[in-house]
Amino acid sequence: MAILDPATVRLEQTVDFALEAPSLDLLLVDWLNALIYEMAERRMVFGAFHVKIENDRLKGRALGEAVSRVRHAPAVEAKGATYTELAFVEDRPGLWRAQCVIDV
Amino acid sequence: MDVSRFEKLSETAWRIAPFGGMRVPAIVYATEDLMTEMDDKVFDQVTNVAKLPGIVRASYAMPDAHWGYGFPIGGVAAFDADEGGVVSAGGVGFDVSCGVRTHLTHLTREQVVSVQQELADALFEHVPAGVGSEGEIALDAQGMNAMLLGGAQWAIERGFGRPEDLDRIEERGCASGADPAAVSEHARKRQRREMGTLGSGNHYLEVQEVAEIFDDKIAAAYGLVKGECVVTIHCGSRGLGHQIGTEYLREMVLSAPNYGIELPDRELACAPIKSELGQKYLGAMRAAINCALANREIIGHLARQVFARFFAQEDLPLMFDVSHNTCKVERHAIDGETRQLFVHRKGATRAFGPDHESLPQALRPYGQPVLIGGSMGAGSYVLAGVKTSEPQAFSSACHGAGRRMSRHAATRTWGGRQVVDDLRAQGIIVKSPSLRGVAEEAPGAYKDVRAVVDSAEAAGLARKVAFLKPLICVKG
Lengths: 104, 476
Prior knowledge:
The complex is a heterodimer. Chain A is α+β, with helices and mostly antiparallel strands. Chain A has one domain (about 5-105): Archease, Possible Chaperone, Chain: A, domain 1 (3-Layer(bab) Sandwich), CATH 3.55.10.10. Chain A is built from one helix and seven strands, in the order βαββββββ. Chain A has a three-stranded antiparallel beta sheet, covered by helices on one side. A two-stranded antiparallel sheet of chain A has the order 4-7. In chain A, strand 2 and strand 3 form a beta hairpin. Chain A starts with 12 loop residues before the first strand and ends with a strand. In chain B, a hairpin with a 2-residue loop joins strand 1 (about 5-10) and strand 2 (about 15).
């Protein structure tokens, strides 16, 4: 994960994810950490995401391309998703809030 | 923070008596001005740490303390395994064994300035920095295991460094007890191409002028001469450490109830030292320490290669290499009894005083070098460990200036180009792949490093030895 303008990312490759966690907030942390890992390992940046959650399982797809230090000019790399200020809650019917602090 | 919530022990020491589940008091070392500037969250975090099982004497915060994840940055806490003490992945942090090393040169400021731009360009070109950068060293499974066990010693055996460097690295460059089997495949994959890379964020390689000497005797023993230049490197265990932190934090969060541990904050995720998970984490964390020590040794080697192109006679001897995100087994005197403790330092530097058995003979009479990284403009400090730090904070001191502004706030306040231009006007060349990254690291985003080290000295945590002013800064 890196700070950049998602509009600069070409959606050329897809990476699929299947995750499971005992609670929704931990599922959010796991999803973000899975993205961080794939970005680091594949040297990719992502610009679009599809996520489907059923009970405690998440199926996701991220679309992006190989990172270009010239075109994307990424500012910082993420180390990991933290449990600080972590929330994944339905504030009111149909309106969900997901928040997580990323260590950079 | 509101200082009225503390009992004032001295001009630079503030105590919070145990309350609400705290097993020991909390103590913050800082002047009243720095205390006032600190985030309120430091109060919550330093008191939360005091609630962890098996904590000994007190939960401490250094003068550069600021809000962290679980532990404050600048937090120090020691645990006794025989009293149900814990090891905490949150107490070490994601960048395991992030640290600083300083190499000496005999180059004058004028000699460096005469090739300043060319030297900056060459360092930037030769030392991989920034997001997505890759090193020249690719590790297979066997090589990875050897690196995780050998640390800087492994790097030197591979030709990246010199044997005499080991005297000047904590634990002679190799943390014992590393367990490569406790390091996941994901962590290994994340590191395969990252050996010898600086990373991003606040990591850097700087060429600095020794601009001021505060203690002639100790500076001479350290090899620091006013007007000469040094090379300082700040980085850690890269992707491997980040992945180990991520994975063990999760496992400890989920396992805490099984160990009967009630976490005041999930970021304080921990496991008993004597548990299987605690031992597994210690093995993985020590492997990550070795990764960081190897990484800094390789970068030091890369810096030597660049300097050799410009100044053939310079071999850049290592002054010292010290980590500031660790958990280490140390012996400390508690109420007259020497006990083995697991000392967590998160954004805090070990600072052994004179005569400590772990110091090399050449440094032993003077205390351990404590390397304090400041911001790009404000400069850095070399301190020396003092004996009074042992009873004060398990021989610990600060590690940097400490942020006073978030990265986001910094980018709204400064532009990267403006920061680069302003620093160039002050004689400092900044090279970075990311102008946004430079803006995030703007000098104004940090506290006054001079106030921080003055506080550390006044509190008896360390002694000021020298001030280093940057001439070249390669930012990740």
